[in-house]
Predict the 3D structure of the following.
Amino acid sequence: MNFASDNAYGAWPEIIAAIGEAAMGPAPSYGDDALTARVRERLSQLFERDLVVHPVISGTAANALALATLVPPHGAIFCHAESHIAVDECGAPEFFTHGAKLVGIEGWNGKVDAAGLNHALAHFLPGFVHHVQPAALSLTQATELGTVYTPGEIAALSGVARDHGMKVHMDGARFANALAHLACTPAELTWKAGVDALSFGATKNGALGAEAVIFFHHDDVKDFEYRRKKAGHLVSKMRFVSAQLDAYLTGERWIRHAERANALARRLADGLAAIPGVEIAHAVEANAVFVRLPEATVSRLRSRGAVFYDWGPPAEGRTLIRLVTSFATPEQHVDSFIKLAADG
């Protein structure tokens, strides 16, 4: 019963097959191949806009390179205090931007709100040489706590960012899960709501290792390609990354897989919530469940083979844990986990 991460599970058979097909015969290097061109076209159709698309192999690279392109070294990047770029990327955004400052903002359920952003911005004086200058807002979709920004919430935050001359970046490592929850269009969840750049994630939803940096405005691309090359993220055999994205975007399977992961998280949360002494800590809107369980229950679950992360130290005899479902999590593992949790 592995609920540690959606990264714990493998890749779709269709994606593995697509990589094999891409190996047949020669193709131009460094992204000049037909598969990469087709991915750009497919994403442009999906987002209803002429896009600039650059495949990369990791979410950290996608986030850090996108932000480095949008933000100067003396800039400030505003984000939730628990966002992936602030907590789990080992300083990559600061490193790739050559020193831009991450400004963490607290917010309920893992989300920044307009009031919190305005409060944080009030501490930075435009044009004051002793302060880093506000340059970008980064939003995580879905958030690190499994919640989802609505298009209206994104538009409100983008409005604040625009008022302060800032760009808006979205870390979309679980973009498919957010989209599946909201049942809106990719365009409505991004550029129509004011997003300038998107780290489009596929790895957590079934790719072997494939992400894409998407710019919605050609003027924002600037020197991205040179930054990607200098950072060692220009893959020579790019077609193998693009083959994954091409298979991922074929039909509606990428949304169907995300819908399945979300539904399993909901099933898990509903089952656990019915157990006395158990508390669901945050709204379950994507494929993550944060739940407080008695310490004895946590120990029993681990002793029976369940794998998950604690999300902070125990308090008052209970532990907050994170459970993540995936496109391939067996339904019986969800049911077994609920039964084991209830057996105490």
About this structure: The radius of gyration is 20 Å.
